[in-house]
Amino acid sequence: MGCCQKKKINKESINDELYNENLIPDNITISDSPSNIPSTRISLDTSSTSLDDFKKLEVIGQGSFGKVFLVKNINNNKIYAMKVLEKKFLIQKKQISHTKTERIALEKLKHPFIVKLNYAFQDITNVYFVTEFLSGGELFFHLRKKAGFKEKDVKFYMSQVLLALEFMHNNNYIYRDLKPENIMIDNEGNIKLTDFGLSKIVKPNETTFTLCGTAEYLAPEILFGQGYDKTCDWFSFGVVIFEMFCGYHPFRSKTKKIDPSIYLRKTYIPDKVGKNAKDLIEKLFVSDPKKRLGYNSADEVKNHPFFKDIDFDKVLNKEYKPPFIPKLDSETDLKYFDRNIKGLKIGVNEEKKENEKDEFHFEGFSYEQKDEQQNGEDQI
Hints:
Elements: H1 11-15, E1 29-31, E2 54-62, E3 67-73, E4 79-86, H2 87-92, H3 96-108, E5 117-122, E6 126-132, E7 137-138, H4 139-146, H5 151-170, E8 173-174, E9 183-185, E10 191-193, E11 200-201, H6 220-223, H7 232-246, H8 275-284, H9 299-302, H10 312-316, E12 361-363, E13 367-368, H11 371-375
Antiparallel strand pairs: 1-12, 2-3, 3-4, 4-6, 5-6, 5-13, 7-9, 8-11, 9-10
Helix pairs in contact: 5-7, 7-8
């Protein structure tokens, strides 16, 4: 019997995939009618994949702009997660650019700690993102049950998050929505970042001013409208570390509302947080982004004493044992998901409309991951 060895991943191989704006297509657009312009990408708008290829099993997530379903592909019997967004709603809420960015990000950001896109397609009413199903659920789900993690567990999870953020920043992406709800755990116990609807492609040294994200995790420069760059993600990184240690948010006022003035005061960090962890959090919470740890590069964060016993090459190759490995009864087990979501109806129009014009066609949206990539290791 032959044997196979898991491919080693290293920093050099990842750096070969650094962002090249010539590789990012500009042809994902919206028009009043379907475009006949030929695609420059093999998989764009040539996909035969449709909603008919999937059987919906359960609702596993619900957000402001759509729902996420557990689905089975009836052609290969594999289980996936499917996010469904209604086109008219996206247009009304001015979410077209966010949807475009997420579609591009999910294809381009191939990394062991970033969720993998398998299919993207559309019909007259909706757009669909089909990704790998991360059966361990949200980190938030586990944090809520534990009310805080041990330091070694925080190091494990956040070292993986750190590498994912570093990869995004090296590819000129700002994440802008780092929070425990967007950190998922796979069936082996490792994390993957999800939900790139608020991500933004920025050029080196470029500043952006859009106010977006989840209020509790926003850097002060975003809240105060001062303009920001990728350094804002390191502030959010600090908030998540604090929350993982303490089980609660560091910037809540007595009224349980976000008070911007809190950012200007020194944050109280409980004694349960170790010395090195406390120092790291304080340096990530610096209000001036140019003085914040991580401003120059992710290496500033990786080289902090809190991570002194972490070998990031081993992290990248998943050589550390996860503190938690999901115990699953089946490939569709949802024990690590919030089951309080009511109703299995998709909540958007799924009615088939034969021979009807697609008024809001997203040119270049379709995507199918190649079979060899679906069946093999992450392509870095």
